[in-house]
Amino acid sequence: MAKRFNSQQEIDAFLETPRLAMLLYNGPRPAPTGVPVWFDWDGKTLRMFAARTSPKVDRLTKDPNVSVLVTNAVGEPEAWVAFDGTIEISDFEADDWNALLDRVAPRYWDLTEAAYANEIEGWRLAPEAFVALNLAPEKVRSGA
User: Fold this and answer.
1) Which residues, in sequence order, are bridge partners of residue 71?
2) Which helix (H) or strand (E) holds 124?
3) Closest CA to 89 of 60, 68, 54
4) Which of 3, 22, 28, 81 is the residue whose CA sits 20 to 30 A from 71?
């Protein structure tokens, strides 16, 4: 099988298309815990978010070591990119929160649908209900 990524530009193009990422962290069980997350990659930092009171925030506070895996969609040639490192958890300033939502929400939801638009508008009004999950990866791996 031919290698899917031949350059950093191909990896970046792969990451710019709407894809869920799987945040893998050490949870309460012996096996790792994985949850889907929205993400934004700027070439240096992977930006995600979570509800401040979510169980993953509690676990990541205790052990911030993670891997974030982004894969191909069904029907696409096999490919994946993984980011390994330590999550930094921080509060959002309203402007930063809105800028992140402006970038990621339209990738994942059709905001012409009232239910989705209303949900995002509610999130905009409550930046304090969320925390930033930022990962400046120690290692970026790719394959397929």
Assistant:
1) 80
2) helix 114-124
3) 60
4) 28
* Domain ranges (residues) in the chain: 8-143
Q: Which of 81, 66, 58 is nearest to 34 (CA)?
A: 66
- Please report, to the nearest 10 degrees, the dihedral formed by the alpha carbons of residues 72, 73, 75, 78 taken in order: 10
C-alpha 39 chain-centroid distance = 3
| CB-side neighbour CA atoms (13 Å) of 6 | 2
Contact 5, 12 (CB under 8 A): no
Per CATH, the architecture of 8-143 is what? Roll (2.30)
pTM: 0.90
**What is the rounded CA–CA span in Å between residue 116 and residue 56?**
23
Query: Tell me: the pLDDT tens digits for 50-96?
Result: 999 999 999 999 999 999 999 998 888 889 999 999 999 999 988 99
Q: Can you list the positions of beta strands (E) in the chain?
A: 21-25, 33-37, 40-41, 46-51, 65-71, 80-91, 130-135, 139-143
